[in-house]
Write a structure and sequence with these properties.
Elements (H helix, E strand, L loop, with lengths): L1 E4 L16 E2 L6 E4 L9 E3 L6 E2 L4 E5 L2 E7 L4 E8 L5 E8 L12 H6 L2 H10 L7 E3 L3 E2 L8 E5 L10 H7 L1 H12 L6 E5 L9 E6 L7 H8 L8 E3 L2 H13 L5 E7 L7 E6 L4 H4 L9 E5 L6 E3 L11 E6 L62 H9 L3 H6 L11 H6 L6 H15 L1
Parallel strand pairs: 1-14, 2-17, 12-13, 12-15, 13-14, 16-20
Antiparallel strand pairs: 3-9, 4-6, 5-8, 6-7, 8-9, 10-11, 10-15, 16-17, 18-19, 18-20
Length: 443
């Protein structure tokens, strides 16, 4: 069994860690999916306002891949279809009414084991759940016509304030195994499952990993075990979505339920709740007090998107982070004396006293300035990549140089810590995404 040791990286000591006990919250009255958030997708509507839909009904499809459709996470009525500039579909909102779902074929464990690729692929496409599968490079919705070299599943979350996957997978062993078995039919290679400790799974290659964030990122796991070569495609699936696929085959219907962490310095009651994909943010934070200035984030604090109370959980997100949004600038802040109890640093700037959790706020503590090459990026990036040189190649739009520096192995989430650690306040992750978009556009 392969064991990966990650030495570079950093676990941010942020306050508001969620409890592992799953708390029930009132169901969301509305749910929504935002088509514009899916990379490389050109959405075409399949519903109109006022239409009745069931759990699993198709809402829209990708014009570049017409057989890839998005399932409704709720039964009810299409309440709103919101358009943006140039008629871009920004949101499809559904008013929830009941829990009726579309039923399909049920598979036994033996039938799953003996099924072929076409049978499994057609069932996922028929259920409108193929968007749960993403591809590397570019970390976008996969193409069902492709044959991936391998499929990677990360069974460990190391992102700040994320859901602990160990009890999740333990409580849904059968569904997780069924999902892994189904995915193993979609590749001639391996389904690689990475976890903190050895687990028993059939039809999968198990590897373990230890170390700080971003050890849980699937891109880091691919890089340290089976790196992507030019021309190769790898698929990846979130661990909770593997359970969703497993339930599809075992029960014959789409189960949009996931566990979501509600946490952060601005959360008065950090917890883990059971919710549906696309649930309203307001329904998820019903046990929180946000009367003080706070910033709500769908996703973790490093890679999530700012949302409002009346917005909705992102399709791939399983966290709602609440960060304090009140910023007080200290007098002569640059010269102020401090220690690790009052100031946070990834270097030895301040004396360290224990592992105190910090009440981070939204302050950047500085502004964008000239690059300071003091290995701040390199110290938190566990990849054999030169981030400084790659950043410059992206700025210069030098496609050949970007490819030679390993651009195809990169994703913006893997460089999020570089942005956090950067003394120059450069959004490195965003620049990596710009580079990937440029590379994909150039073909």
């Amino acid at each position: 069994m392969n064991h990966i040791i990650i030495r570079k990286g950093h676990d941010i000591r942020i306050a508001g860690v969620p409890t592992q006990e799953v708390i029930s919250v009132p169901g969301s009255e509305t749910v929504a999916i935002s088509p514009k958030t899916f990379r490389g997708v050109k959405p075409k509507l399949l519903v109109n306002e006022g239409d009745t839909v069931q759990i699993g009904s198709p809402l829209f499809f990708d014009k570049t891949k017409p057989n890839v459709k998005w399932a409704s996470p709720a039964n009810g009525t299409v309440k709103t279809i919101q358009f943006g500039a140039r008629r871009i579909i920004e949101k499809i909102e559904i008013k929830v009414d009941g829990s009726k779902s579309i039923q399909g074929q049920v598979f036994t464990s033996e039938q799953l084991t003996s099924a072929n690729r076409t049978t499994i692929l057609n069932r996922i496409l028929e259920a409108n759940l193929f968007p749960l599968i993403r591809q590397r490079p570019f970390n976008k919705v996969a193409n069902p016509k492709d044959f991936p070299r391998d499929i990677f599943i990360s069974a460990v979350n190391t992102a700040p304030l994320s859901v602990n996957l160990d009890p999740v997978l333990e409580s849904a062993k059968a569904a997780f195994q069924a999902g892994v078995t189904a995915l193993s039919k979609l590749t001639d290679g391996s389904v690689v499952v990475t976890s903190k400790k050895a687990i028993e799974l059939q039809h999968a290659e198990i590897q373990t990993i230890s170390g700080p964030h971003p050890a849980g990122n699937v891109g880091i796991q691919i890089h340290h075990s089976k790196p992507i070569k030019p021309g190769e495609i790898i698929w990846s699936v979130n661990a909770q979505h593997v359970i969703t696929l497993g339930k599809l085959f075992l029960n014959g219907s789409y189960s949009p339920d996931i566990l979501v962490s509600i946490a952060g310095p601005g959360a008065i009651n950090p917890q883990t709740v059971s919710a549906k994909i696309g649930a309203s943010i307001g329904s998820l934070i019903v046990n929180q007090d946000i009367s003080e200035p706070t910033r709500l984030i769908s996703g973790n604090v490093l890679t999530g998107q700012t949302v409002e109370v009346d917005n909705f959980l992102g399709f791939y997100d399983s966290s709602v982070s609440i960060v304090l949004d009140s910023v007080e600038r200290p007098f002569m802040g640059m010269l102020a004396v401090g220690n690790s109890k009052s100031k946070y640093s990834l270097t030895n700037t301040f004396l360290t006293f224990g592992e105190k959790l910090f009440n981070f706020n939204t302050a950047q503590n500085g502004e964008l300035r000239a690059m300071v090459p003091i290995n701040a990026w390199e110290n938190v990036l566990p990849m054999d990549v030169y981030p400084n040189a790659l950043y410059r190649a992206i700025l210069a739009q030098d496609i050949e140089e970007m490819e030679q520096l390993g651009m195809l192995e990169c994703d913006d989430e893997d460089f999020a810590l570089c942005s956090f650690a950067c003394p120059s306040k450069i959004d490195v992750g965003s620049m990596i995404r710009d580079g990937l978009n440029l590379l994909e556009a150039e073909g």
